[in-house]
Design goal:
Translation Initiation Factor IF3, 5-stranded parallel sheet, 6 helices, Oxidized Rhodanese, domain 1, alpha/beta, 9 strands
C-alpha cells in the first residue's frame, strides 16, 4: 500500500480526522471549491462512513472519485476536481419526512425503516424494528427490500439517507422518504 501512497500526488490535503458525518463531506465540498479542474484533493478521515459518503458525493456531483486507502484505520480519499462542463449540480432527494412524522409510523406493517448508518452506529442505538444496511453496502442488499412498501431511510443527519434515497430511486423504488434530521435529533424510542 505504501507504494500506491508514494505514487499519488495530491494538490491539497484536507484533515478530517476525528470528525463524523456529515463534516467530512461538508469540508470536502468546501475544499473542492478552491481547487482548479484536474487537481486532486486528498481527504484524511477516521470516520468509516466517510468512505461511502465521499464516494457517493463525488459520483453525484461529477467529480472523479479516484479511490481510497485504509492505513491502519485512517482513510485517505482521493478526488479529482472535474472541469466545469463535467460537474453536475448536486441534487437533493425531494421526498422527506420529519422525525416526528416518522414516530407516528413506527408500527405500520406496510413500512420499512431503513437505517443506512454504519453497523457500529446502529448497534449503539436505532429505531425499533429498523433494518440496517450501511450506505456502502446498500447495493448488495437491494433485492432484500420490498419495493411495494413505504421505505423511510434514516442516517445520523440526513446526508447518507439522501444519497441512499437517490440510489434506491434510480433502481426503481418509488415509495421512499428521507428522514430529516435523522438520528442526531431522534427523540423517539431507541433499541440497542
Amino acid at each position: 500500500m505504501s507504494n500506491i501512497t508514494n505514487q499519488i500526488k495530491a494538490d491539497e490535503t484536507l484533515d478530517c480526522q476525528g470528525l463524523s458525518c456529515p463534516m467530512p463531506v461538508v469540508k470536502t465540498k468546501k475544499a473542492m471549491e478552491n481547487l482548479e479542474p484536474g487537481q486532486v484533493l486528498e481527504v484524511i478521515a477516521t470516520d468509516k462512513g466517510s468512505l461511502a459518503d465521499i464516494k457517493g458525493w463525488a459520483n453525484s456531483t461529477g467529480h472523479d472519485y479516484l479511490g481510497s486507502l485504509d492505513e491502519e484505520g485512517v482513510l485517505k480519499h482521493y478526488i479529482r476536481k472535474s472541469n466545469p462542463d463535467e460537474v453536475k449540480e448536486e441534487k437533493k432527494y425531494p421526498h422527506t419526512i420529519s422525525n416526528d412524522e416518522l414516530q407516528a409510523k413506527i408500527d405500520d406493517p406496510n413500512a420499512i425503516i431503513l437505517d443506512v448508518r454504519e453497523e457500529a452506529e446502529y448497534a449503539f442505538g436505532h429505531i425499533p424494528g429498523a433494518v440496517n444496511y450501511s450506505f456502502g453496502e446498500l447495493e448488495q442488499h437491494i433485492d432484500e427490500l420490498d419495493k411495494d412498501k413505504e421505505i423511510y431511510v434514516v442516517c445520523r443527519t440526513g446526508n447518507r439517507s439522501d444519497m441512499a434515497c437517490q440510489l434506491l430511486s434510480d433502481k426503481g423504488f418509488k415509495n421512499l422518504k428521507n428522514v430529516l434530521p435523522g438520528m442526531s435529533q431522534w427523540n423517539g424510542p431507541i433499541e440497542k
